[in-house]
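User: Second chain of the day. Same drill as before.
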Amino acid sequence: RGGWKLEKPAATMFAWAEIPGPYQELGSIEFSMLLLERAGVAVSPGSGFGTSGEGFVRFALVEDAQRIAEATARIADVLDRL
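Assistant: Same format as last time:
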């Protein structure tokens, strides 16, 4: 769902994901704001980690599996509707 595939990180609590193609033009800050406002999910804009982070967002996987699944479903719903 949502057309966005993320790989599980091997040994960290953070997952980096490239902003999906149709949303690249928003940039990492605007895309992060879109996810917060429409899905209620906070992610870190990649640009906050330097210029090479632009075009990416960072997820902190610090919640339990159920909350992560809920956040994933809400993000997918938003991306499916846009």
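Strands lie at 14-18, 44-45, 56-60.

User: Great, on to the next one.
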